[in-house]
Amino acid sequence: GQEKLSCNPKKENGSHVVLCELGNPMKAGAWITVDMELSVSGLEDMGDAITFQLQLRSKNSPNPANASVTVPVEAQAVMELRGNSLPATTVLPTSWHSVEGSRRLEDHGIKVEHVYQLHNKGPSTVSGVTLRLTVPSQLGGRFLLYLLELGTEGGMSCTNPPGLNAEQV
Does this UniProt record's set of keywords contain Transmembrane helix (predicted)? Predict the structure, then answer.
């Protein structure tokens, strides 16, 4: 039959120990299968696996049985990317032409700011996240979007794409 075990967490010699009493009496040569579900927190710096040391002790036998179980650690986090363009819609007049060689921003078009926010919706924390955004800067050999600058907030760093502010506007 199936029975629930009574388990108690303890700390022994700097290790966290969970002691489960199986009960008595058991007949000689009996086999018991135990399924345990463990919830472990604080695994951010544990690497890709955690090993549990298991020991089975009987009051009738002076020699405990030892085993170890290695379980892979996987962090799960749902990332959400939100984006916005300011202004949301931009229309250039059909007669508009850029001024070659000018360093004035308004001679190269209308400023459009694209803002992206990357949110971690959990349940785990994340680090070392890489976000790659591809922006179509040319169409038919002509500038479609002129990439002027790139900035971040919140402790992130960016690598400037090739061709960023190529005309030094």
Answer: no
User: Tokens 């544990």 — which residue?
Assistant: 46
| Closest of 115, 118, 148, 121 to residue 130, by C-alpha | 118
Q: How far apart are CA 107 and CA 98, in angstroms?
A: 6
If you ran DSSP here, which 8-state letter would residue 105 be given?
G
Domain definitions of the chain by residue range: 6-72, 75-168
Distance CA 49, CA 72 (A): 4
pLDDT mean by block of 10 residues, the chain; 169 residues: 76 81 72 76 76 80 84 83 90 77 81 89 81 82 81 82 81
User: How far is CA 157 from each of CA 117, 134, 164, rounded to the nearest angstrom?
Assistant: 14, 16, 16
Which of helix, strand or coil describes residue 10? strand
CA distance 13 to 32: 29
